Amino acid sequence: METTVVEGERKDFEPVTINILINKDEQSTISALVFDLEDIKKLRQIGICGILTGTLPSASQQNTFLSIPLRLMVEEVLWLHFNGYCHLRPLNGPISQNVVDTIKTRAEDLYTTSIARIEFLYELQRQYKREEHLKKLEKLGLLNKNVKEGQEDNLNSKLLESSLFVQTSNASSILQDFSMQLDDKFIINWLISNSSSWNNYLLFKSLKDQKYILAPGSRFGGKFIAYPGDPLRYHSHLTVQNAIDYYNEPIDMLSLIRGSRLGTTVKKLWVVGGVKGDIEEEPSTEVDSTSKEKNGRVSFFSIEWAAFG
Amino acid sequence: MAKGSRQYSLRYKYPLPIHPIDDLPPLILHNPISWAYWIYKYIRSSNNVKDKIHVDIIGNRYPRILVKDDVQMLYLWDNGFFGTGQLSRSEPTWKSRTEARLDADDSIAADKSQLTLEKVTQRRRLQRLEFKKMREQLENQLLQLRRSGGSKEQEYALLEREREALRDFKAQQSFHDELDNVATDEGQINGGENEISVREEDSELIDGNGNIKQLEALELMPVEAIFLTFALPVLDIDMSSLFTRLHAYSSGDIEYKNIHNLMIQYVSYHHYRSHGWCVRSGIKFGCDYLLYKRGPPFQHAEFCIVTMDAHTTKDYTWYSSIARVCGGARKTLVLCYVERLISEEKVMALLNKRDYAGIFSSYKINEVTYKRWVPGKNRD
Amino acid sequence: MKGTANPQKVKDEAIDSDLDDDEIVQDWSEVAKLAHTNNAAALIPKRGEKDYEPDGTDIQKLLLHQAQKAMFDTLSHSIAGSVLKSLVKAYYIPDNHNALLPHPKGNFMQTMGRMNSNGQFTLSFHEFVYLAERGTVSPYILVPNSDGSKKLEIPLSIQDLYALFKSQQDLDKFAIYAQLKRLGFIVMETKDNSYDKSSIYPPTLSHNKILRFNSTYQSIIAPFKIWRTSLFNHLVYNSLGLLTSKYTTSPQIYETLNKLVPYTKAPKTLEELRISRFNVLQSTTTNNTNLLSLTFNVWKPQTNFKKKSPGLPDYQVAVYNKNDNNVKFPTYKDFQNIFNNLDYKFEFLNYSRQDEISWEDVSFTNGVPTNTYLSNLKSKAQQKKSSDNDNNTKKKKKRALKTFPPHVQQLRRLKAGYRSFLLAIMDDGIISFVKIAEEDFGSENVWYVPTATTNNINSRASNKIKNNNHGNGDRKTRTTIVEKSKI
Amino acid sequence: MSAVYNRSEIEELVRNNLLQFHLWTEVTVATETLSWKESNIRLLTGRPPHKLSNDDEDVMTEYVLPVEMSQYKTSYLTLEFLDKIFDNLCPENTKRLTLAIINDDGTTVFYFVYKGIHKPKKN
């Protein structure tokens, strides 16, 4: 497994930034988004793949290949947080007002920076295009010393200027200094209480510990699907069900039958799991999540059709 | 049980085990005698089945409803495809399959060219088993005879029968030795259920007369049993005994929450049956029912039915896995939401009055189809 | 749509993978080639199937490295934006939560955007983000400088735009919007009032209006109340009443059986649709606060789309986030509420027709019949012509259901159902669609009638037996579906 | 003092099913019992007529747990129950348990249950 991470490596891991779209006014689940491509690469190296959700500008009429932002499952965020792999950036609300206020107070600064940045990018392009042009002329044997300096530039500058590319960047320069009004702990507790269940996280963690890479699984009839390696290269092995109560919740037989039937055709085992332990109640906002993590032990069963009967 | 094609269409002539009166004489308008005869026949005739079908209900917390009589099993299958053979995929055919497997049917055995090496071996083993069994019986009888002080003549007769059995057995063995050669030459050895070698375990299949015992019963779903009791008077049990039996072993008195599931399952079953569908268990596809237009021998099921309380909401993964299974089998998934129109107390009151029709008509059917929708396939 | 790379191959693959989305094989080397960015990605050899599991071999590591590289190269080379000469600037207006385009240009204007009251071209927030992501417009915000003497133009990033979403729900809706838009669908929010809405329902469904349907009203209302009849029925419903009645045909037996269980009858004709809407409006008890609602109107991709008067949508979409603890998967009540609020091209109205229905003939726009509305439009002639053409091509393609044998029609009705909507499910970035359709098995009978009984005299001559001739096409025995007329 | 539900009927049913429908051999009801919520649970053991999975090396003895399922009653198969079965009724290192689900529609269906996470068949 190439994404193995040992404890020591974490020191070399510069935490990635996860943007949490959180709106305190509404009871609402949360989107965790990553906009920085380098961060996305780093996450992939530790087996957190997420789902790309944005339009890919170069192939904008399909949904198979998408681009930033990368959207993460809540369980992925919790795991990254508890392992020290991420900072959380709240976009707390009313979001748009905060962003707009920030922009307004820093207007001149932002303006100057953006002008400088754009001019810098233009200049890079101009240089590149000039060089390309000269190379072309040289190749065609049309290059002479006179043309090389001022003259040619004038001829083509208008054309060149209009062909300069204006890029809409992915990552924000405005939000860099966005004031963090909420601490990570608050956001984590919010995440835990507003979406999914704590036990689902424990299932996730246990599978992650067993080197599986997980993805949202509802289309396949599960909470997660689990891959033995990067989904780009390996088939998924498991359809993992939502955690059930270890002691009191019977396995739904019809679901088991369906899951096994599906599993036979797509070569995935149907996995059902739950957490045994003393604490049964939902973690409140004050629960120290890390200590609770150690309390439960996850029990999984993998089920498939016996190929007869 | 080979069926000719004509027999086949006659066999499933009736869609329900209650038949219409369809043997009335022709009515000739200008002949009053024909009228009289017709009226006589009409009065004498009845829709009822001649003998109600006997059911045994076994099990405790999970009752199971069985029909054990061969003729009655077949009747329920042929007239509306009710029940499932416990040792078969649907129609109870275990006995005939097993007879074929063990070559107990002489007409099949006589066809030498059909025999395979394994079958010969099987049958030899089986016959040895049969012989051993018979000898054991005769020996027991002899023992009984001696204990009860029977005559020498009687004892002699028994011994003679044993010798005769031995002679028969030997003769069969040499006959099969010849067949062995035939089969070996042909060298045909097939897999599959019918080709499994006879096992020691098969000895328990043979009864005292050397025939194969019927181990299979036809099992009715609880809703089928209710239908064949409440809606159609077919089974030899009355509704309240059946209903009580289905809920025996519930702790204490029957509470509404204990009967709710059966109520909505039955209402849904009755709904589809009463509009002409052949409704069978959908467990193979992880749903409640499969709907056949006429019955399994005629076409595949087109619909999967999932029955649920109208207020039910489940995790999305639940719906999506059902939809994938049904979609994979090219069947349309119908979510049948059953809505209770009266209070729980009223249902219980009706139950106390044994007013089952009152109960069942107090639930309403609401249906939706649920289909995965692929944007790319629905653009024009 | 504007012509960025639009390779048929990627499109086809996208569609195929939707067909069986079990394991979307994301071969980024394919899309990398198309992204007209020269780079190593394009040189990656076409790789085979996915492997079962990592086995520690170098070749596997290499293949994984290449696959990841192809993906990340594509992502880093595929940037949103446009060259200066075709730059379309879009300015975010915080107060309106939309974007203003002083110099709009591009094909997108056919299906997106609208003029505000000042005659300025604006994009809704979803349109704005969608077009910025694909590089069709460039997002900016205008803010005053410190002394307020002039406005400064600050470029926004994609990340900034996402920070401007009003809520999580809004972000989910956008994701679904974008998913449909990328495939060419035309999508408008139901709450968008910038275009003339068409409706299948007359503008004021007053009691007076409904009286016009009075003749049919009673006969249609009756089945909706069927359960009451049934409650009465059960008094005589006693184990088929074999003691008191005799049945000479199987249909008689079935007809007795199917009186027991009441069912919801789906509206099947235009009149029934309108009457059911009337009934819904009459019963004002529905508490809509927590119910699922319709978010989008969707039209299939088309070239002659009229933004101002799009007519009835082809689909209507509701959005559901499955990981939101505070929302449950819809119950039947939620479905029913949606069905009652649907207003689109109800395709089932064609079931009983030989030809395709003309939606202009049966709908209303801006309070008048759509045909009248269209003839009032300046572009009337053109409009009529193009929509006629559209209809003609459709007619050629589709064979009317009515021309099929009755048993085939019946099966198709049952499989497709009646009023329907699309439920879009968001699962942490993965979107699936489900079509939920109202179904009505209670109105269809499929029982098998042996031919042997046809000579017999019906003992219940008073029963009007209407032979609908729904043969089931069985090879050996003709099946007839007999439906007793409801009284 | 609560009633102990008799499971011999379903044990016999599953035995017949394995023996006479699926033609297993050496099918017997095991002697070890687990007392579980008013029932005494016993497994069946037996040998199928051929390998049940390509991943198996050869025909092996299977451990079969009969459980009931109904149209209208909830199941009693909890995770705790399965753990207890593995811990108390299966020999150590048992690869898998075969679940025999006896439905009240007359069918008995069989599923493999592996403790923990297991990989799917390669072929």
Automatic annotation (TrEMBL), chain A:
InterPro entries, A to Z: tRNA_endonuc-like_dom_sf, tRNA_intron_Endo_cat-like_sf, tRNA_intron_Endonuc_cat-like, tRNA_splic, TSEN34, TSEN34_N
CDD domains the UniProt entry points to: tRNA-intron_lyase_C
Active site: Y227, H235, K268
Entry's Gene Ontology molecular function annotations: nucleic acid binding; tRNA-intron lyase activity
Function: Constitutes one of the two catalytic subunit of the tRNA-splicing endonuclease complex, a complex responsible for identification and cleavage of the splice sites in pre-tRNA. It cleaves pre-tRNA at the 5'- and 3'-splice sites to release the intron. The products are an intron and two tRNA half-molecules bearing 2',3'-cyclic phosphate and 5'-OH termini. There are no conserved sequences at the splice sites, but the intron is invariably located at the same site in the gene, placing the splice sites an invariant distance from the constant structural features of the tRNA body.
Protein name (record): tRNA-splicing endonuclease subunit Sen34
Subunit-structure text: Heterotetramer composed of SEN2, SEN15, SEN34 and SEN54. Interacts directly with SEN15.
Protein source organism: Naumovozyma dairenensis (strain ATCC 10597 / BCRC 20456 / CBS 421 / NBRC 0211 / NRRL Y-12639) (Saccharomyces dairenensis)
Family: Belongs to the tRNA-intron endonuclease family.
Chain ranges of the TSEN34 N-terminal domain: 32-88
Ligase among keywords: no
Automatic annotation (TrEMBL), chain B:
NCBIfam families linked: endA (TIGR00324)
EC number(s) from the headed UniProt entry: 4.6.1.16
Subunit and partners: Heterotetramer composed of SEN2, SEN15, SEN34 and SEN54. Interacts directly with SEN54.
UniProt name for this protein: tRNA-splicing endonuclease subunit Sen2
Domain tRNA intron endonuclease catalytic: 264-340
Function: Constitutes one of the two catalytic subunit of the tRNA-splicing endonuclease complex, a complex responsible for identification and cleavage of the splice sites in pre-tRNA. It cleaves pre-tRNA at the 5'- and 3'-splice sites to release the intron. The products are an intron and two tRNA half-molecules bearing 2',3'-cyclic phosphate and 5'-OH termini. There are no conserved sequences at the splice sites, but the intron is invariably located at the same site in the gene, placing the splice sites an invariant distance from the constant structural features of the tRNA body.
CDD domains with a match to the protein in the record: tRNA-intron_lyase_C
Coiled-coil region list: 117-155
Alphabetical list of InterPro entries matching this protein: tRNA_endonuc-like_dom_sf, tRNA_intron_Endo_cat-like_sf, tRNA_intron_Endonuc_cat-like, tRNA_splic, tRNA_splic_SEN2
GO biological process, one term: tRNA-type intron splice site recognition and cleavage
UniProt entry keywords in alphabetical sequence: Coiled coil, Lyase, tRNA processing
Similarity field: Belongs to the tRNA-intron endonuclease family.
Organism: Naumovozyma dairenensis (strain ATCC 10597 / BCRC 20456 / CBS 421 / NBRC 0211 / NRRL Y-12639) (Saccharomyces dairenensis)
A Pfam family it matches: tRNA_int_endo
GO molecular function, one term: tRNA-intron lyase activity
Signal sequence range: none
Keyword Phosphoprotein: no
TrEMBL record, chain C:
Residue ranges of the region described as Disordered: 376-400, 459-487
Membrane as UniProt keyword: no
One GO MF term attached to the UniProt entry: tRNA-intron lyase activity
Entry superkingdom: Eukaryota
Biased composition (Polar residues): 459-471
UniProt keyword list: tRNA processing
InterPro entries registered for this protein in UniProt: tRNA_splic_suSen54 (IPR024337), tRNA_splic_suSen54_N (IPR024336)
Domain tRNA-splicing endonuclease subunit Sen54 N-terminal, first and last residues per copy: 72-140
Gene Ontology annotations of biological process type: tRNA-type intron splice site recognition and cleavage
Biased composition (Basic and acidic residues): 472-487
Gene Ontology annotations for the cellular component aspect, listed alphabetically: mitochondrial outer membrane; tRNA-intron endonuclease complex
Protein family (similarity comment): Belongs to the SEN54 family.
Name recorded for this polypeptide: tRNA-splicing endonuclease subunit Sen54 N-terminal domain-containing protein
Organism phylogeny: Eukaryota, Fungi, Dikarya, Ascomycota, Saccharomycotina
Encoding gene per record: NDAI0C05590
Automatic annotation (TrEMBL), chain D:
Xref: InterPro entries: Sen15_fungi, tRNA-endonuc_su_Sen15, tRNA_endonuc-like_dom_sf, tRNA_intron_Endo_cat-like_sf
Keyword Calcium listed: no
One GO cellular component, as annotated: tRNA-intron endonuclease complex
Record bears the keyword tRNA processing: yes
Keywords (A to Z) from UniProt: tRNA processing
Single GO MF descriptor: nucleic acid binding
Domain tRNA-splicing endonuclease subunit Sen15: 13-123
A Pfam family reported for this protein in Swiss-Prot or TrEMBL: Sen15
One BP term from GO: tRNA-type intron splice site recognition and cleavage
Domain of life, per lineage: Eukaryota
Family from the record: Belongs to the SEN15 family.
Protein name: tRNA-splicing endonuclease subunit Sen15 domain-containing protein
